[in-house]
Specification:
With about 160 residues, this protein is of the alpha+beta class. It has two domains: about 50 residues, 2-Layer Sandwich (Double Stranded RNA Binding Domain), CATH 3.30.160.70; about 80 residues, Winged helix-like DNA-binding domain superfamily/Winged helix DNA-binding domain (Arc Repressor Mutant, subunit A), CATH 1.10.10.10. The protein is built from five helices and five strands, in the order βββααβααβα.
Length: about 160
């Protein structure tokens, strides 16, 4: 049995709650309140480290082990989301097309909305066909921040020493 444990991470877009087991990261939740950060369980330390590196601008690909639960369709959408390059965006329609059926557009949106590990699986990189920011579990303000953050680092505009 793999017990679920959790920890918290303070980020520029608020606190994140990370949950997972020895098999991998299972969930990231955005919190709109402050929390006292407990000692991080050993198997969540790598997730915390990689997210910290992401927010510092030194990581653009996550290699955290994931332990995801979803339908086969959701899992396929989440795999496709992981292929969207850092600093780039893709539309829901483009993802449906890559999955081989443009008629799954609404289902792609639904799978995107239920992504259990936002940021690590970059659902924030998905935009509307008209190029506008639409839907994000963490709120559009966070989505906008994440996209601007990635764009700045992918363009080499900012540096951390």
């Amino acid at each position: 049995m793999n017990p679920i444990q959790r920890t918290f991470l303070k980020t520029p877009i608020g606190f994140l709650e990370l949950s997972g087991s020895a098999r991998g990261l299972q969930q990231i939740n955005f919190l709109d309140f402050k929390v006292k950060i407990p000692r991080t369980p050993a198997y969540l330390k790598e997730g915390v480290l990689q997210l910290e590196e992401y927010f510092y601008g030194t990581r653009d690909i996550f290699t955290i082990p994931l332990d995801l639960t979803g339908t086969p369709f959701q899992l396929n959408v989440w795999k496709e989301l992981q292929k969207i390059p850092y600093g780039s965006t893709m539309t829901y329609l483009e993802i449906a097309h890559k999955l081989g059926n443009i008629h799954t557009l609404r289902a792609v949106g639904g799978a995107n909305a239920t992504n259990p590990v936002p940021i690590v699986i970059p659902c924030h990189r998905v935009i509307g066909t008209n190029g506008k920011l639409v839907g994000y579990a963490g709120g559009l303000k966070r989505k906008k921040w994440l996209l601007e953050h990635e764009h700045a680092f992918s363009q080499g505009d900012l540096f951390y020493n």
